[in-house]
Fold this protein.
Amino acid sequence: MTGLLIAGGVMLALGLLLSGLLALANRKLYVYEDPRIDAVEELLPSANCGACGFAGCRAFAEALVAGNAQPARCTVSTPDGVSAIASFLGVEAGEGVKRVARLACTGGDDIARRFAHYEGRESCRAAALVAGGGKACTYGCLGYGDCARACPFDAIRLNKNHLPVVDEVKCTACGNCVAECPKHLYSIHPLDHRLFVACSTQMRGKDAKEACKAACIGCGMCARTLPEVITMNQNLPVVDYTKNDLATQDAIQRCPTGAICWLERGGLVVYGAKALEARAAAGASEQQTQPATKVEAATS
Amino acid sequence: MNSSAKTFRHGVHPPECKATADAAVTRIPWPDEVVVLLSQHTGAPAKATVVKKQQVVRGEVIAEAGGFVSVPMHAPVTGTVSAVDLALNPRGELAPAIMIKRDPDADPEAVHGSPRDVDGLSAEELIKAVQDTGVVGLGGAAFPTHVKMKVPEGKKIDTVVVNGCECEPYLTTDYRVMVEQADKIIAGIRIALRATGAPQAVIAVENNKPAAIEAMMRAVPAGAPISVCSLATKYPQGAEKMLSTAILNREVPSGGLPSDAGMACFNVATLAQLGELLPAGRGLIERVITITGGGVERPGNYLMPLGAPLRHVMEFAGIRPDARKIINGGPMMGASVASLDVPLTKGTTGLLVLRDDEIRTGRLEVYPCIRCARCVDACPVFLNPSALGLLGRKARYEDMAEQYHLYDCIECGCCSYVCPSNIPLVQYFRIAKAMLRERSASK
């Protein structure tokens, strides 16, 4: 009986001592954290995509509370969500420009040639390591869908010609596809960028055209039409987006292959008349175009 | 097989398939045009020193080394430079190259060179002279030979290992070089010994090549500090790290170089070229490759000018209509060829043309890892390919590098070879290395 009492007493004393230590540690080592951070994190979408430039939603919430960022920088939140955060913190929502990922290649299986058949793991990255993947255009999309698998928002799907199509509504410009693509074909663009070079080949003229019917052949017609906006670099036109306001559809009219196109609001891709003709002759199906849901000829 | 023969632990025994072992080296007809890629070696690309329409003589320097870890290029044929432009390389990228149209009237064998006295050179001058020959590791890795000869500060090389193992199935180029050019190899060994300051050299040959062992033994002069060592026939016996264990019983430390184990390792074909080219003051313009496999009509060992398009080579060797796949190199480490427009490079050891019935075609069903640990028992560098493969599948590349020593993987393919679930393990490792390389470059 005494043994039981001693044992019980020791356990009780030990328990009191340790809980006292814990209470002390809680008091002494307490780190104050703004409770608003938790609240703001609750209001964020928890996608942890990193599109805002921070390491995740928590880091972004900390930056918001510290006043180092504006709520609209989160491209995943709905406008309501953004204004909820703004009113909670009592700050301006800021201006969020909707940005999306664009694929600089339209070479689906219907218009781009493959000269070897790849067998192995179904992955662009894996195929690219085996002699480049077997596509005649060594710069082109391989079509095994690494980008679609990397997209946390299900915004990329492959069309029937194994060309990825980005859903502008779902895309949050998180940049996962940019990092994943072994051919580095993705880039992030604000929606109001109109002129877009949908080709990455540095091959020239005949070689490029033999590899892919939609390839940029480096003729420079677009640059000559709109020299203040478009310059040629390594056989490819480069659009100066700081002069986006000067861009007109004239630049795409003389493109013989449709490598440069005009992105209209609502996912509409406009090609020049010459390019549309060439594509129809090449037997390209309408659905292969990217990132469009509809295609139409320019009316200028 | 001699069970007491020196070797390393683990490894595999693939079928040897060395059908071309008895085919003496012959020269193929000259191609009309050659494409000399400026980056055929590991390290910085060479810089072109010729321009379009310039006349070049066979053996003349057409591109200079782009740094210390780089080598110059020499014209493989006499003719006119038709372009300095991008050309398809074996990795499937467009890379800078020099195209030369061969002059059909010129003597194809005539070669430019300025003989030099090798014995009068200091070790430093010798290394520079080795770089000037443009010789790189001809065993496949194409690492510049002079870089291996330069002993890092604070280290000492006590043995030059001469690699005549040729453990890859099908390939017989090193074997033919040993049988036919033993004297040139000895001359190359003397250069390697002087440049590295090593007191002795060991010629390592697998014991399935008795004729090569005999030829090398006969070629070693009496009293020379050169010995011939017969090793067990096992894959990958010809890897530097395996040779170090087998011959010197020393392990190359993780992340280290062979020089950390007091060793410098050169392929026999590399030293044979060096032994011939250096005293003659010439450059590397041709090499021996094996063309074999069931899909080729005239298999054999051929001497060919570098830069010859594979199309030309295959036209000569004859592709059978049922040929299905062409592999650049051996079946274990070689890479598939996607286009016949790719030129021959310094690192091409062989072309393996396989028929449908020689390969497993179609999409191989990949089953889950059953943790049988056959890959663990096969891995010659004692990694855990099973765990690495599972991490690779989940794209946890950093964990592969930090916790499972991804960078010690020599990509020999033993794990993929033994895996009963057909898991493409080496492919996972190559993807992981490529992704990590990209991530560190973008940081």
